[in-house]
Amino acid sequence: MNSLDQLADRFINHLVVEKGLSKNTVSAYSRDLILYLEFLRAKKVSNIAESDTTLVLNHLIDLRDAGLGPRSRARHLVALRGFYRFLVQERILETNPAQMVDLPKAGRKLPDVLKVNEVEQLLRTPDLSKPLGMRDAAMLELLYAAGLRASELINMGIADINLEACFVRILGKGSKERLVPIGQVAKERVDTYLASARPALLKGRQSLYLFVTRSAKPMTRQGFWKLLKQYAVKAGISCKITPHTLRHSFATHLLERGADLRSVQVMLGHVDISTTQIYTHVAQERLKAVHTQYHPRG
C-alpha cells in the first residue's frame, strides 16, 4: 500500500492534470488534505484502508471544536469526498467512507454589496495625474465593469482586452474562457493607462501582463487587496471591502436594473445558475427595504 503522502500527491496531481482545476482550488484541497492526514497520523492510522466513516466524522468534529465554521467544514468534506472517490477509481479502496457523511448545514450568507454611489466614489479616488493612479483607476474600473475575480484581473494579458470591440477575454476557474463586455468609462481608463501610465511604469521593459508594477512585474493579489483597502478608506467607505465586493456589486446592480439572470451567469462565469441566484436575494432585500420605507402601509 502506498503511503498517505504518496496517495495525497497522486490525488493533487490528478486535480491539476486531469481535472484542470485552478491553482487556488488545488491549494485549498491540498491544505484540507494535509490537515486530514495529520489527523490520521495522530490516530496512528498509517494505512488508508484503515480509515472509515467514523474517523471522517471525528475529524469534522475536531475541526468544529477548533472553531471552523460550517461553510469551511463543508468545503473540507468536499475535498475528502474527492480524495476517497479518487482512491476508489484507482482501485486502492473499494468504498468511499466520506460519501455517507452529510455536509454541515450553513445558512446562506448574502454577499456584501456596495451602493452605486459608493462604487462611483471609490472609482473616483485614484489620482489620475500620476502613472500609478492611472493604473489603479483602470484596474478598479475593469474589476467592476466586467465583474472580475481579483486573480482574473491581475493575470490578464495585454492581448486579452479588445478596446475597439469593448470586451475582455477571461480565463476563469478551471481554465474556462469567457468574453465579457466593458463600458465606455472602463475603455477610456484602460486606454489612458496603456497610452501613458504603462510605458512609464515599464521604462522600456517588456511584459505580457496588462497591469504592471514599478518593477515591471504583475501585481499580486495581496498587493491589489491592500490598494483597494486604501482607496476604500479614502472614499469614506466604512464597510469591509474586498475585490470580491465589487464582483458582488456588479452582479447585483445589473439585476436591479433589469438584467436577466442567465446573462449575469455567463458574465460571471458561473457553471451553475443556482450560484448566481444568490444575487437575486440581495436585490429582493433592497426592494423590501424600499417598500418598508416608502409604502404608506410598509
Your description of this structure?
It is a single chain. This protein has 298 residues and is mainly alpha-helical. The protein has 2 domains: 86 residues, DNA polymerase, domain 1 (Orthogonal Bundle); 178 residues, Intergrase catalytic core (hpI Integrase, Chain A). Helices cover 58% and strands 4% of the residues. It contains 13 helices and 3 strands. A 3-stranded antiparallel β-sheet has the order 1-2-3. A hairpin with a 4-residue loop joins strand 1 and strand 2. Helix 1 runs antiparallel to helix 2, helix 3 runs antiparallel to helix 4 and helix 6 runs antiparallel to helix 8. It is globular. It starts with a helix and ends with a helix.
Supply the key terms.
298 residues; mainly alpha; DNA polymerase, domain 1; hpI Integrase, Chain A; 2 domains; 13 helices; 3 strands
Calculate the terminal CA-CA distance, rounded to whole Å: 67 Å
Instruction: Report the radius of gyration as a whole number of Å.
Output: 23 Å
CATH architecture of the largest domain: Orthogonal Bundle
CATH class membership of the largest domain: Mainly Alpha
Total strands = 3
Strand order of the largest sheet: 1-2-3
- Globally, the shape reads globular
- The CATH topology label of the largest domain is hpI Integrase, Chain A
* Mean pLDDT over the full residue set: 87
Mind sketching the topology for me?
Layout: H1 4-19, H2 23-42, H3 53-65, H4 70-89, H5 116-123, H6 131-146, H7 150-154, E1 161-162, E2 167-171, E3 177-181, H8 184-202, H9 221-234, H10 243-256, H11 261-268, H12 273-276, H13 278-294
Antiparallel strand pairs: 1-2, 2-3
Helix pairs in contact: 1-2, 2-4, 3-4, 6-8, 6-10, 10-13
